[in-house]
Amino acid sequence: MLRSRATQTRRHVHIDIIFLVERLEALLANGRRMPMTNSVIVDQVAALDLIDQLRVAVPEEVRQAKRVNEETSRLVERAQEEAERILARAQEQAAFLIEERELTRAAAVRSREIIAAGESEADEIRRGADQYAAEVLIRLEGECIKALQSIKQGLALLDQRHPSAAGGPGGMGSDGSEFEGVVGQADQKSHAQL
Known about the structure:
Elements: H1 2-11, H2 17-29, E1 32-33, E2 40-41, H3 44-161, H4 164-167, H5 179-193
Helix pairs in contact: 1-3, 2-3, 3-5
């Protein structure tokens, strides 16, 4: 009979221990009191049935509590791992963004430095080119002045050799050529330009 009760009780695996304890307490409280003693008479079958149910329920409750505890531990562990993964990902992303921002800032700084260096170098090249051009033009001017002076001296020499009074401009030279007139005209033009 006890086995059949225990088997029936095992069918109802999820029995609340508190409920069973309260029923046992009610059974004792409602039992008939023995006169002049603290003893009570209880229904043996009902008491044994409750005890059988407690025998089954207590280990099941313990197992269930253990399962809940293990599941809770697994969930906490999984949540902790996920939190660590999320944190690691966030840190990686933050590091990447910081590095990217730093690279962008460094690239902008480097770009400004390159532009400034390029502008400075271009200014220096321009100044050098201007100075070189000025030197070349001054040298050329000097050579032109020398050339003009040589030309003037040559013309003056030619004028001395062939006086203009003899033939006049466009006239014949002392040797009978038109050279003297041409030289005279060239001399007049160069003097007018000077």
